[in-house]
User: What shape does this take?
Amino acid sequence: MLLPAGSRLLHIGPHKTGTTSVQSAFHTNRAELAAQGVRYAGTQRQPMQAAHAVTERASPYADGKTPPIGRWLALVREVRGAREGRVVISSEGFADADDAAVRRVIGDLGVGQVHVAVTLRPLVELLSSQWQQQVQSGMTMAYEDWLEAVFHDPSNRVSQAFWHRHRHDELIRRWASEAGPANLTAIVVDGADRDRVLRVLESMVGLRAGTLVPEPELSNRSLTLAEVETIRAFNAAFRAEGLGTQLHAKVMRFGAAELMKRRVADRDEPRIQTPSWAVDRAAEVGREIVEGIRSSGVRVIGDLASLVAPSATAAAADGARAMSHAARRAAEDAWPTIGATAALGIVLASGLARDAASVAGVEEAWPDGPLDRGTPPPRPRVEPLELARVSTPLLGLVLVRRLLGAAVSRLPLPRRTA
Assistant: This one.
């Protein structure tokens, strides 16, 4: 479906539905897009600060504060002033918008001109991805405790934040109520053909097939169990030191976690497994979501039924979750490399900070888009008092003394055979 000339295609994610690939494909092919009459709004992979500003969300790219509304207004001016026939805006930050923010976004970008695109993945596949993302943001809650909160404690902020993004039928309702059902397209991500989303978006804005090509070395891989437990142990040690969340974002998000994702994990290293009770509950909610989307009147591309189909990667039965000896050996062999990688990432972030710019300068690289692999690591500014407290020796001691022991203890033991 080709959108009319003058349309603004707004891709809102939500998180962990292939947004990195979409944003990188638009960002790195700006010249070709312009030649075909399409503008990709913003100057980075995604205008996350603008999205945070209009949704009134605290942003790690603005030192933990809500960015000034001027960031959003600047994006609106760019969109309104574009000479190209069609404009594309993409940020999963828009998925956090409440009803009032949705109304403002649609109104500012032009009622009748905005067409919203929502990308969808099975709910069960999003659980571990969102948990590890929150661990990278400083959370210390174990995976099963987090799952309990998500599914059984609606008053918990963890649960509220997750379902605001990932109760996809309600997400679609919020945006369709302002844009109109005819102006919203839900695209089901095909696990066997990840590029299908790009082909659909190309057709919507009139790009030649094959124009959108993601960065060849771009990787936003999931962390292994050992890696995420290392970060979780670091978070506990970091919190015990009484250090601030802004500093955590700088040394972990833009340091250790980013460097870990560049590590090539052994194929036998254990991954995060979702317990069967949570898989079953996710399937139940998934069926409700699918029915809600079907009855919404929005355009759907792809098979909605696949959103509740069993997932080979996520739906591991409890009995199969015990770690094999080979997997445990792989995890044990990986600990030194993981610890060294985390330590190096922190040292780079804290050391480079002494004479470098604020983290706001690398805003769009996170949360769903890793850094350009051809550029140096980010150089966030760390406050002098906090930097003095987090010396390289202290960071090294924290990692060696508290990460490895605490993280190893969290790994499940192999089942004994008779």
